Structures are given as C-alpha cells and as structure tokens.
Amino acid sequence: MSGLVLEGVTKAFGASRAVDGVSLAVAPGAFLALLGPSGCGKTTLLRLVAGLERPSAGRIAIAGRVVSDGSAFVEAEERGLGMVFQSYALWPHMSVADNVAFGLRVRRLPAEKRRRRVADALAMVGLEAYADRKPAQLSGGQRQRVALARCLALEPPLILLDEPLANLDAHLRESMQREFRRLHRETGATFVTVTHDQAEAMALADTIAVMHEGRLQQVAAPRDLYAAPATEMVARFIGRGALVPVAILEPAREGRLTVSLAGRVLPARGDATAPGPGKLVVRSETLSLSHAPDAVPARVADVVYRGGFHTLDLAIEGVPDVLVQVHAREAPEPGARVGLAIADAWALAD
C-alpha cells in the first residue's frame, strides 16, 4: 500500500493549468520534497493533496483510501492529515498545550487520551516545559515545533509541510532540518514538503520531485538528481550546472559514452540511445585547470577572489554565450588562455 498515489492530477484556473497531469507514487514512510521555482505548481499540488483545492481531473489516494476522483471528493477535515503551514497558524490566545490539543478536541478524543497525546507530542519536539506559554512568548523555531507537535498529536498517516522553514534564519533552518529528519525517522510517518530551496530539499528528503510549469520533470533520490538530471531544467536548477553544447559520438553503453567538445573527445556518463547533438552538464567541482595536451582550450573571462581560492569564469573555445566556473588557488589574469579538464560530466541528448 502506497502512502500517497496521484494519477493524472490536473488543476486548471481558466485556460491555465497550475498542475498538469501529475502522476506520482510515494511509499509509506518516505520523505518527499516537491521542489521547483516559484509558480511551478508545487504548492497547488500540496493543496490538492490536503483537500484545500479540488482537482479538475485525476485521482488521489492516501494510505489506500481514494480521497478524490471523478465521482468523489473527501473534504480536508475528513482526510485525517497533518499540515504545517509557513505561517505556523497557531491560535494566539491559546497556550502551547491547547494549540496542540485543538485537533484532538475537534475529533472528540477523550480527555485522558488527549492529555497523553499532547504530552507525548510536546516531548517529541522538546517543548514539555513550554506547555503553558502563549505563541507570542516563543521564538520562531519554537512556534514551528508547536505546529509540528500539533500534527504529530493527531498521529496522521501523512504530514504535509508548506515551506515550513521559510520564515526562519539560516541557523534555525539548519536546526529544524535536523529536527524534521529525526522526527521523520522516529514517527515513521509519510512526509511531503514543498520548497523552492534545493539545498533544503536535499537535506530533508529521501526523494525529490522537481516541477516546472505544472509538470513533473524528474522524481529521484537527491544523489541521482544531481548526478544524472533527466532534463535541461533539472540540470540548471539542481546544482546550477552549466550546459555546454557537445556532439554525442556514440550510444551509451553501461552508462558511458564519448562526446566531442572544442575539437577534443571526452568520456562522459549518459543514457543517450543514438549519436547526435547534446549538452554536457558541468559543475565547478568536476572542472580543473590542466596543462595536459588533450585539455579543452578555454579563455579566462573573469576572476573573483573568494578567500583561500579564486573562482574563474571560463569561456570554452568555439562555444559562445556559455561560461563555466572553476575554483583554483592560483588564478591567471582575465584574457589568459588555459586548458580545462572535465571529469565525471553527464551528457544529455537534445
């Protein structure tokens, strides 16, 4: 039984499709991140799963229960989900304990069970000593923990996180990332989070679904997304890779092939099924300056000192309008000609 199944889910606003035919299966206990730039449809998709929006088409099932299809729609309050909002959505006049207990009261859980659930949830997020405080007496990170405790108290099969760390400073974001990972491991619940921050998605999730213009671009583990992007959009968005035009010289064999760049033949990884034009995905950590005779010829366009090393923008010979970045301890002057070594690059067929 999957924790969450989407089949052809679409949400149209007039002639515009915010979500366009998304199909996705999330295993029970997984931590999925919906990742993409602003306006890509990730928050709309989360709201469709939560029941806060009705899909125009498609089917949604949670823990084996169909909550939306062409003939049925289960309202948000009947789905039994937990949701942590970017704004925390805490009642300011209630204590921490009463905020956590609110959903349990709505479900009419007996008082003793309610008390135990609240105590357990607050203990899980480390806020037992703050039960009687009001939200205004808490820091941003503590309010986020209260919102999470309110979800955990409900013991939901699925917890939805809507940009939960966006309002926190960098230090608190790192702390809460660790907290989310710990709670995910300890509860075994299925988590789905929305973010536009690739570093946050990689730190939190075991699976990332990259969206663009309402459609899924790729669904994979963070390491696989980084190492083998399926589309140019994913390559640019994950790790901010530079895309260098190349000629793919042969079909891939066991994930390896060769490409031609600036008169040099280079080995690369890829899954192209035929020779032809392509793009080489390169990142600074896979590039280095080289004096080898088979190094790719390039020219230094710009140099920036970063403290202990320099960042060089290089223009590859014969490749207009594309700059690649290399980190080096010693930096040639702008305009100098250099050799470039490229290791472990991924080739995308056009």
Proportion in helices: 10-25%
Beta-strand proportion: 35-45%
Mind describing the biggest β-sheet?
A: 6 strands, mixed
User: Could you list the spans in which at least 5 consecutive residues all have pLDDT below 50?
Assistant: none
Mean pLDDT: 92
The domain count comes to 2
CATH architecture group name of the largest domain: 3-Layer(aba) Sandwich
Our measurement of the CA-to-CA distance between the termini, rounded to an integer number of angstroms, reads 37 Å
Strand order of the largest sheet: 6-7-8-3-9-10
Q: How many helical stretches?
A: 8
Shape: elongated
Q: Rg to the nearest angstrom?
A: 24 Å
Class from secondary-structure proportions: alpha+beta
CATH class of the largest domain: Alpha Beta
Name the helix and strand elements from N-terminus to C-terminus, one letter apiece.
Answer: EEEHEEEHHHEHEHEEHHEEEEEEEEEE
Brief write-up:
This protein has 8 helices and 20 strands. It is of the alpha+beta class.
Please, could you describe this protein's structure?
The protein is of the alpha+beta class. It has 2 domains: 4-227, 3-Layer(aba) Sandwich (Rossmann fold); 241-349, Beta Barrel (OB fold (Dihydrolipoamide Acetyltransferase, E2P)). The protein is 24% helix and 36% strand. It has 8 helices and 20 strands. It has helices spanning 42-50, 96-106, 111-124, 140-153, 170-187, 198-204, 222-227, 232-237, and strands spanning 4-13, 16-26, 31-35, 57-62, 65-68, 82-84, 158-162, 190-195, 207-212, 215-220, 242-248, 256-261, 264-270, 276-282, 287-289, 296-305, 310-316, 323-328, 337-342, 346-349. The strands form 4 sheets. It has a 6-stranded mixed sheet with strand order 6-7-8-3-9-10, with helices on both faces. It has a 5-stranded mixed barrel with strand order 11-12-13-20-14. The longest helix is centred in the middle third of the chain and has 18 residues, at 170-187. The radius of gyration is 24 Å and the shape is elongated. The two termini are 37 Å apart. The mean pLDDT is 92.
